[in-house]
UniProtKB/TrEMBL annotation:
Protein name, per record: DoxX family membrane protein
InterPro entries linked: Methylamine_util_MauE
The keyword Transmembrane helix is assigned to this record: yes
Membrane topology annotation: Multi-pass membrane protein
Organism, as annotated: Flavobacterium jejuense
Domain Methylamine utilisation protein MauE: 3-137
Domain of life according to the entry: Bacteria
Main location: membrane
Pfam hit, one: MauE
Subcellular location: Membrane
Length: 369
């Protein structure tokens, strides 16, 4: 019976690690953004790791896939099971921390392919922890599927293929796009809220410093003069009581000089967005290609718009440095990183529908009609 339970756990854990790892390996840049969120001062307060988020992301996802393969084929059982245990204990801590302290809304366990709430992620990790503990205490039942040479070749091939995939998607774009801005999506429709959809409900709360500790006090208590004596007012915020329907696209703007041009731009038959969520982090190699492409697209009748979250002084400096003649408009940085996993990236629209999307390395592949 123990052997049957162990083999079942082996198969479940192995395939779950491979699937979860491959989904994130399809988009390691997106996973690195999630790690940056965890490293933020408001979560784990490990901001010194933010510059290394992409390297860490690539290592984690490659190791996750290969660990799944190693478990299934029975390669170095002790090392594999210990590695699985350490990894799942760490992930369980992260998901518990995110859920209990309401720090991160989505753990990123399955990238954008499957969104899990922090609580769902924590329960998933608890189940995985239980399965891995079964493997840990029954290691003697995990036998190699074939000889040592074949095992070594399988692991080497897994590492090699994973590294190649990571390199490929970082130099181009994710092979499969699971986001709301994938090719074929209409931005305007993605922003619509269906009739009868649940609306969010909020409670006004006030933040006071009480005995040196920031404390949330409900609006009703403040109105009833129940604020502790000597408390110092810090801030006011709206706390979500009931989470309503949030459309797939909800933070997209095209702002300039205090105006939002989203309606007029999305009505245009031929539009190109040249996106750099942070110009100071954009690749010079890509920026040098933009003006020649802009001229070619303009001649074909396209309206070319730069989108960035950088402030006006930075965008003007970059326009001068690279000789750019198109204007930059403002959009939220998280939204821009979601639209295209490149800095800069190119997005082609027809009346608000995304028809092409490429990394700056593939700018010559854009089809201009």
């Amino acid at each position: 019976m123990k052997n049957i339970v162990t083999q079942a756990a082996r198969i479940l854990v192995g395939f779950l690690f491979i699937i979860s790892g491959l989904i994130k390996l399809n988009d390691p840049l997106g996973f690195s953004y999630k790690l940056e969120e965890y490293f933020n001062a408001n979560v784990l307060n490990m901001e010194f790791l933010i510059p290394y988020a992409l390297i860490i992301a690539c290592f984690v996802v490659v190791f996750e896939v290969v660990l799944g393969v190693m478990l299934l084929i029975g390669f170095k059982t002790k090392f594999t099971v210990w590695s699985l245990l350490v990894m799942i204990v760490f992930f369980t801590f992260l998901t518990f921390y995110s859920w209990y302290f309401d720090k991160v809304k989505d753990c990123g366990c399955f990238g954008d392919a499957l969104k899990l709430s922090p609580f769902e992620s924590f329960i998933k990790d608890l189940i995985l922890l239980g399965l891995i503990l079964v493997l840990f205490f029954n290691q003697k039942f995990i036998k190699p599927l074939y000889g040592k040479t074949a095992l070594n070749l399988t692991v080497f091939a897994s590492y090699s293929l994973c590294l190649f995939m990571a390199f490929y998607v970082l130099q181009h774009l994710p092979i499969k796009d699971f986001r709301a801005y994938k090719i074929g999506s209409n931005i305007r429709k993605g922003m619509e809220i269906p009739k009868g959809a649940t609306k969010s409900e909020y409670e006004m709360v006030f933040i006071y410093k009480v005995n040196g500790v920031e404390t949330e006090i409900p609006y009703a208590d403040v109105m009833a003069n129940k604020v502790p004596e000597g408390a110092e007012f810090i801030d006011r915020k709206d706390k979500v009581i009931v989470e309503g329907y949030i459309p797939p696209i909800h933070d997209f703007t095209i702002e300039k000089d205090g105006s939002n041009y989203i309606d007029s731009v999305l009505d245009e038959p031929k539009v190109i967005f040249l996106i750099s969520y942070d110009l100071s982090k954009s690749k010079a190699k890509g920026m040098k290609k933009l003006e020649a492409f802009n001229k070619k697209a303009t001649e074909k009748g396209y309206q070319v718009i730069g989108l960035t979250a950088s402030d006006l002084s930075i965008s003007e400096a970059f326009k001068n440095e690279f000789g750019l003649t198109f204007d930059y408009y403002f959009c939220d940085p998280t939204t821009l990183k979601t639209i295209v996993r490149a800095n800069p990236g190119i997005v082609v629209l027809e009346k608000g529908t995304i028809v092409q999307k490429v990394h700056f390395n593939d700018i010559d592949k854009v089809v201009l009609k």
